[in-house]
Design goal:
Elements lengths: L8 E4 L5 H12 L3 E6 L2 H11 L6 E5 L5 H15 L4 E4 L15 H29 L2 E6 L12 H21 L4 E8 L5 H7 L3 H10 L8 H12 L10 E4 L7
Parallel strand pairs: 1-2, 1-4, 2-3, 4-5, 5-6, 6-7
Helix pairs in contact: 1-2, 1-8, 3-4, 4-5
């Protein structure tokens, strides 16, 4: 299947590392024009450097998605630069210190919800307004297998990703007749900075994560981004409101 995004405008949050950086590179190869954002300006600059494309094809700006004014500024800047928004990948998110629920930090809970839930909601709110106005669009929210099942020691993160899936399904029902498709992708453990920070050189922790996955290994960012590209492509024209697991079989049984 030949997937192309030639001349399509693809917006990616959290593009400074992990899935976001890999997505920027792969969507660019497929012909997309990019609107990239991240709260980490250094990481974002490195992504743009690796892209090595004509500046007219890529707009990048620092954005904290938990702040409404940042989100509105990002989306409006992309529309002013490119004229429309075809695909929005709401990828930005954070994890927190692993702890049982009774020992979890209220501050970390609030911050996780502010970024992962409120931030996704704010992005979708402005994206949907633009897509409804132009009469088409695709939104892909990056959730997690933790949005489909429980995840011990990650209560706030798990709650936030369940909420992202709830937002996805609700918006998909509301906008299906307006030619807007909205799905969520739910990766298992992959070698991204977020997961590598959790492992932090602890071989047993990485081994335990791998053993939890029926395929016996962690995923790669490229494997997840391949799924993103199909979910956002014109070839996937009859799927909306779904939370698809890319998890090596983790949620199967």
């Amino acid at each position: 299947m030949d997937i192309t995004f030639a001349d399509k405008i693809v917006q990616i949050t959290g593009a400074g590392s992990g899935f976001g950086r890999t997505a920027a590179l792969e969507f660019s190869k497929a012909g997309a024009k990019l609107v990239l954002s991240d709260v980490n300006s250094t990481g974002l600059e490195e992504t743009v450097r690796q892209l090595n494309i004509d500046p007219d094809r890529c707009l990048s700006l620092t954005c904290d998605i938990s702040k409404p004014e940042d989100v509105s500024r990002m989306i409006q800047a992309g529309i002013e630069h490119f004229g429309q928004l075809d695909v929005a990948i709401n990828n930005a998110g954070i994890a927190h210190t692993m702890a049982r629920m009774a020992e979890s930090s209220l501050e970390e809970f609030d911050r996780t919800m502010a970024v992962n839930v409120k931030g996704t909601f704010l992005c979708m709110k402005d994206e949907l307004q633009q897509m409804a106005h132009q009469g088409h669009g695709v939104i892909l929210n990056v959730a997690s297998v933790a949005g489909l099942i429980g995840a011990p020691l990650a209560g706030a993160y798990t709650a936030s990703k369940h909420a992202v899936i709830g937002l996805t399904k609700t918006a998909a029902l509301e906008y299906a007749r307006q030619n807007i498709r909205i799905n969520a992708i739910c990766p298992a453990f992959c070698h991204t900075p977020m997961v590598d920070n959790l492992i932090d050189g602890k071989e047993k922790r990485e081994r335990d994560m791998s053993m939890a996955i029926p395929m016996g290994r962690l995923g790669s960012p490229e494997e997840i981004v391949n799924g993103m590209m199909w979910l956002c492509s014109d070839q996937n024209s009859f799927t909306t409101g779904q939370a698809l697991a890319f998890d090596g079989g983790l949620t199967t049984g």
